[in-house]
Amino acid sequence: MPAIPIEQAVRTMLTSNIANLTVPDASITHGYRLQDSSLPAITFSVDSTANGSISADIFVSEATVTAIAATTYDVSVLQAAVRSACIAGSYGLFFRAVDVTNQSILPESVGMGDEQEPAQGITNITVHWSSS
Amino acid sequence: MATVYPCSAATITVGGSAIPGIIDASVTLNHEPIDCTEIADAWKNFTAGQRGGSMQGTIYYNQGATAVSSLEGAVAGGLSVAIVFTMHTGPASYTANGYVTSFTPSLAVNDVVRASFAITFYGAVTVG
Questions:
Q1: Which residues contact B17 (CB under 8 A, 6 or more apart)?
Q2: How much is the average pLDDT of B80-107?
Q3: Which residue of A has its CA nearest to B88?
Q4: Measured CA angle at B83 (ends B77, B84), to 5 deg
Q5: What's the fold here for domain A6-130?
Q6: Residue ranges of the domains in chain A?
Q7: Any chain A CB within 8 A of the CB of B99?
């Protein structure tokens, strides 16, 4: 049984490797961000976790990290920081290998009442991890 | 009711060291009976012949693991290895000596380093 949830370890990876000036710790949240919170922000979710070996000592998790900023350019800069942050290391769980498998950007758009919806950058990662 | 065992308790040791991070593995025992059918026989006849075995598997490549470096070194050096292939807890293992006939590290986009290997047994295989 893992010592901590994989979600907590992914958040630790992001907060450890993304400068607080780039995105404050409090703005890196699981699942969603509050609509009136400041930008930029990062949300993440762990989409699946499966056994990676027959003895169940290695796990493989698929996760999505979403960078949110006012403009496409800001998101593109933030996505580079996210890519650099997704690296192997000890985050409460041992991330043996972290692969960025896909990145894409959704540009800012017009939302309800003509307000600007922020741009979003999606980063998909695959994490091979173990608890010891 | 059939008893079903999970693979999570399975282990493979090489020279006494367990292989970590096994992705898949299989072992095969063979028996090649000798055809002793005579021309007048209506049905085929066989007598017990030679037996042998082999195994293969896929693992996460880690040269720092003793068992992995043993497999790699054995194929490079033409050395034999002592194998214990345990399917699950209880008496369910094959013990044999063999030669590593291939060791294949592999790379792929967005993936981790894996290796596959194959071993051909020589001598008796102990079914425990």
A1: B65, B66, B67, B70
A2: 95
A3: A55
A4: 165
A5: STM4215-like (3.30.2000)
A6: 6-130
A7: no
